[in-house]
């Protein structure tokens, strides 16, 4: 019983870590795409000047 509980707890911790890292990675990817889009838009806008 105790071994099952420990295994379940370890599984929950691993699941939370994977979820947290996937959310952090998606947020970082979104930030990079946002910065890239803003920089590209600014360069396209400021090119004729």
TrEMBL record:
The keyword Transmembrane helix applies. Keywords: Membrane, Transmembrane, Transmembrane helix. The chain crosses the membrane at residues 12-43. The keyword Transmembrane helix applies. This is Putative membrane protein. It comes from Helicobacter pylori NQ4200.
């Amino acid at each position: 019983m105790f071994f099952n509980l420990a295994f379940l707890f370890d599984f929950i911790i691993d699941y939370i870590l994977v979820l947290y890292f996937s959310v952090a990675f998606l947020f970082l990817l979104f930030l990079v795409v946002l910065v890239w889009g803003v920089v590209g838009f600014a360069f396209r806008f400021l090119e004729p000047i």
